[in-house]
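Hey team,

Sharing the Trace amine-associated receptor 1 run so nobody has to redo it. Sequence (338 residues) first:
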Amino acid sequence: MPFCHNILNMSCVKSTWSNDVRASLYSLMVLVILTTLVGNLIVIISISHFKQLHTPTNWLIHSMATVDFLLGCLVMPYSMVRCVEHCWYFGEFFCKIHTSTDIMLSSASIFHLSFISIDRYYAVCDPLRYKARINILVIFVMIFISWSVPAVFAFGMIFLELNFKGVEEMYYKHVHCMGGCSVFFSKISGVLAFMISFYIPGSIMLCVYYRIYFIANGQARSINGMNQNFQIGLEEKHGILRSKERKAAKTLGIVMGVFLVCWCPFFLCTLMDPFLDYTIPPTLNDALIWCGYLNSTFNPMVYAFFYPWFRKALKMILFGKIFQKDSSICKLVLESNS
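Structure output:
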């Protein structure tokens, strides 16, 4: 058996996959990484460059794209080598840095999704008071919380070794090996990670989506039940609003579906593994982590590709038109559709 370290009785076992399997895995993961980087970088450039896109909501999306870009840049490449080779070649201290950064950025991305759903709730369900409630200061508070809470949680847990507190003996006897870098949680830390990084923000997203869908349907029934004479005028007046409601409901529905499909399996395994005496295979855990990473790959597609401004910004970036004079003040889309 090949080993990761020269001290054989303490070393992790290296991957025994054939070269063809490794090449396929590397190719697939590199494709995911490049797609994540390119997609999120386009969102970052678009919102940064075009002044029309300098809105509170878009700064929140810009911050999320930055998180997802950093995840693809700083975390995924090292996770790729670890998953394919089953070995960690970058030292024990960098393992802690990588694990902390991984947990922080993955959680921060989920936090941003939760805050964006709250922003969309006020935009759709309380549009008259939206600008008063969700101003640039509120957005910066959301961004600060989305970065700071995951950072404190992730780096505090890993560097203070709180993730296996109470089960240290079992961890060092049966789990820890030289040349490895796996994320390990005790029962308490596993439940805590599940609650902070997944359950609480996910529950907020689910409740907000249901509320938007419920209100949008209620408003549609209310308009349809009115007198025909008033209905024509109301449809003219509220046509744009109802269009935005449908777009927000559809987008949030897709966001919720993608989020649950990508992250739910990993966090459920993280929660259950300590209660199953750590019987879940490491290979399955690695596969579920990459399934979670795909959420950062899909985020720019779901949030940006659904909007007309993104498609026009993408064309201008690809054709180099953003380098032209006054391109930053170009009107990407009508104000009512922005």
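The chain has a mean pLDDT of 86.

Ping me if you want the raw files.
A.
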